[in-house]
Amino acid sequence: MTIAPSTETDETRKPVTPDGGTRSARASLRPLVLRLHFYAGVLVAPFLLVAALTGGLYAASFQIEKIVYADETTVAKVGDEKLPISEQVAAARKAHPEGTLSAVRPSPTDDATTRVLLSGVEGVDETDTLAVFVDPYTAEVRGALEQYGSTGALPVRTWIDKFHANLHLGETGRLYSELAASWLWVISAGGLVLWFGRRRAQRKVRGTSGRRRTLGLHGMVGVWAAAGFFFLSATGLTWSAYAGANIDVLRTELRQATPAISAAAGDHGGHDTGAAEGGAAAEGDLDKILAAARAEGLGDPVEIVPPADASSAYVVKQVQRSWPTKQDAVAVDPSTAEVTDTLRFADFPVLAKLTRWGIDAHTGVLFGLVNQLLLIALAASLVLLILWGYRMWWQRGRASAFGRPIPRGAWQQVPPQILVPALAAVAVLGYFVPLLGIPLAAFIAVDVVLGEIAHRKGERTYGGRTEAKRSAE
C-alpha cells in the first residue's frame, strides 16, 4: 500500500500523449487512486494504528487470561467422577447467595472448573455476570470473577476487548474502530492498484535505498497482508454500530439472519414449571435438563440458561466457537424434561454461518493459537506499513518541508464514462458504510476548497507580477 509514487514525474505527467490522444482509463485512474490513498493514509492511519495495536493485544489476551486466572479456571486435582450439576450450583450459591442464577457452564474438560453465572450482583456491571468457579469433583468454590460476553471473557480480556472496541469511551468510542474498519479495505485496495501498476523493476527492494527502499518494503508487505486486511475490514464491519446495522437489515431482507430457538415451554396443564419468582430456576432440575440435552447430542462445552418466567423452558446451548463450531441448542420443558425445540448450526442460513465464522476468526477463537498468531502478525504488518507510509511522506518533502502533498486535479484526468459510474458506486457504498462516505465527502470538500484557495492565490500572484512588470516597462 503505497502513499506516494517513487518519483514526481511519474505522477505529474499530462493526461494527453504527444500524439494528442487521451491516456488509457487505467493510466487516468492511477493519479486519482494515488491521491485517495495518500489522503486516507495520512488522515486515517492514526485510527488504524490504534486499532492494530489494541487488536494485536486482544489476540494475545486469550493466553494472558489462561495464565492470570489459572487458579480459578482449572482444578487443583482431577478426580474420578464429577458431582451432579445441582450440587455444584448449590455450593456456588452458598458461597454467593447474592443475585440471580442466569446460566451454568458445566466443566467442559477434565481439568476445568464449572462456571455458575449470577446476574444482578451489586458492584458488577449490569451487562455482565459474576462467574463463580466450582471444582466439579469436590464442589470447592475456587473464586469469583466478573465475566463479559458470550466468549466468557474475564476481567483482563474484558478490559483489552473494550479498549480495542471503543477505547473505554462507550458508544461514542465505537466510531473509531468502525472508521478504521471502513477504510482499511479501501487503503488496501488502493495500495494493490498502485503496486501492481508499477513496472516490475520498480518493485524490487534489494539494492535500493532511501525513499525507494521504503516504498519497496511498504508495497511488498502490503501485498502479502492485503487479503488479511480485507478480511479484518469485512468482519469488523459486521458488528459495527452503523454499517453493522445496515448489514443486519440486509441479512434479514435476504432471510439470512441468525435464527433463534423458541424458549416457550408450552401448556403445562397447571403444573409447576420449576421457575421460581423473579426468573430464578429450581436448581435441582439442572441435572435432568442437562441429561435431556445430552440425549439430543449436545456435547461440551454447553451453557444452561434457566427459564425467564413460568411459561418458559430451559435453553441448553453449545458455546464452542473454535473449529469445528458447536452452536446447536435445545429448549427443554422443566416440568417434563422433554425437548420442545431444537436448533442446529448445520441448518443456519449460509450468511449466518459465514458471519459466525468471520467474527470468531476476527477475534482469534476459530482456530485457537494459530488464529491468534496470524492476527498478531497482521497487526504488526499494519503498524509497519503505517510507519513506512509516514516515512515516505517525510522523504517526499523538500529540504525542511514535511510531506509535500500529491498534486491536485487527478479526477479531471478520468474519462466521464468511468468517473460518473464510479462516483455513483461510491455514493451508494458511502450510504451503507457511513464512516467511509462521510470522511470521503469531507476529504473531497477540503481538497476542493484548498484547491480553489491555491488557484485564486496563484491568479492574484500572477496578476501582481504582471502589473509590476508593466509598471517597470
From TrEMBL:
Pfam families: PepSY, PepSY_TM. Residues 1-24 are annotated as: Disordered. It comes from the Bacteria. InterPro entries: PepSY, PepSY-ass_TM. The chain crosses the membrane at residues 36-60, 179-197, 217-242, 373-393, 414-432. Residues 82-143 form the PepSY domain. Keywords: Membrane, Transmembrane, Transmembrane helix. This is PepSY domain-containing protein.
